[in-house]
Structure formats: structure tokens, C-alpha cells
Design goal:
Elements (H helix, E strand, L loop, with lengths): L2 H33 L6 H33 L15 E4 L2 E5 L4 E5 L2 E6 L4 H6 L7 E4 L2 E8 L1
Parallel strand pairs: 2-4
Antiparallel strand pairs: 1-2, 1-6, 3-4, 5-6
Helix pairs in contact: 1-2
């Protein structure tokens, strides 16, 4: 696997873990809701059901967000070589390495760190459309594009 494929796979794993955790939370809240019987005092029962519903709703929102990330990843072909920074680019700069895909934090490949960022993030918007050798600045810090993969 090449570098872009490895970064893509790590992002996909990140999304799948988020989806699994959210689905597990939904399942647990629904199971707890079923096990909670009405034999307890009415108010206590209703409060417990409301809390479980809130937990289910929160996990559903997380599942929806993870689905959006997966859809965004599905638009990327990690085998395309790019000379202009765009979604799916691996960008090496004088101030760090970036993978323009989804916001997934720091990914490490062969001992090198890459920041997986969204193309819609402030730094993603600044670097989009640039070529190797060009510069951009974010929060007063100047970044020089050294290489685009």
C-alpha cells in the first residue's frame, strides 16, 4: 500500500470505529429501556426512560456524523496523483504533514505524523488550490508547501 492508501485506510478505520461505538451506545440504551419495568415509581420510571431516549438521540447524532464522514471518504480516490492541493491530497509542509480528507486527528505512518483535516477546515481552505513551492499562513504561522502526493 502506498502512503495515500494507508492514510485513507486509517481514516476509514477511524470512521468505522465511531460508527460501531455509536451503534453500540444506541443498542445499550434501547436494551436498558426494555429492561426498565413500570413496577417502579411512575416519576422515576419516566425520568429513566427520558434519559435513555436522550442517550439514544445523542448516539444517533454521532452515527449520522460518522456516516457523513464515510460519505466524504467515499469521494476520495487514494490512487490519483495530484499536483494541486485538493481533497485527497497528502501535503508535506515545513510545519507538518497534512492529509486533506476528514477531520480524524493525527495519523502515524512509518513514524511520520500526518494531520487528517477536513478540506473545509481553516487550514484546508487556505491550502486548497496551491502547488508545491507556494506558501500560505494560518494564525500568523507561514507554511511552505514542500510536496504534494
Amino acid at each position: 500500500m502506498n502512503l495515500k492508501e494507508e492514510l485513507y485506510q486509517q481514516c476509514l478505520n477511524y470512521v468505522q470505529l465511531r460508527m460501531h461505538a455509536a451503534q453500540q451506545g444506541i443498542d445499550e440504551a434501547q436494551q436498558a429501556s426494555k429492561e426498565d419495568t413500570k413496577s417502579s415509581a411512575g416519576d422515576k420510571y419516566e425520568t429513566g426512560r427520558a434519559m435513555m431516549q436522550q442517550e439514544t438521540d445523542r448516539n444517533m447524532a454521532q452515527l449520522n456524523e460518522a456516516n457523513k464522514l464515510k460519505v466524504a471518504l467515499n469521494t476520495i480516490n487514494p490512487n490519483i496523483k495530484q499536483t494541486i492541493i485538493d481533497t485527497g491530497s497528502v501535503v508535506k509542509t515545513n510545519n507538518g504533514n497534512f492529509y486533506l480528507a476528514i477531520s480524524a486527528g493525527t495519523l502515524t505512518i512509518n513514524g511520520e505524523n500526518y494531520f487528517a483535516i477536513s478540506p473545509a477546515s481553516p487550514i484546508g481552505l487556505k491550502m486548497k488550490g496551491l502547488k508545491a513551492g507556494e506558501e500560505f499562513s494560518v494564525n500568523g504561522k507561514v507554511y511552505k508547501v514542500l510536496q504534494i502526493l
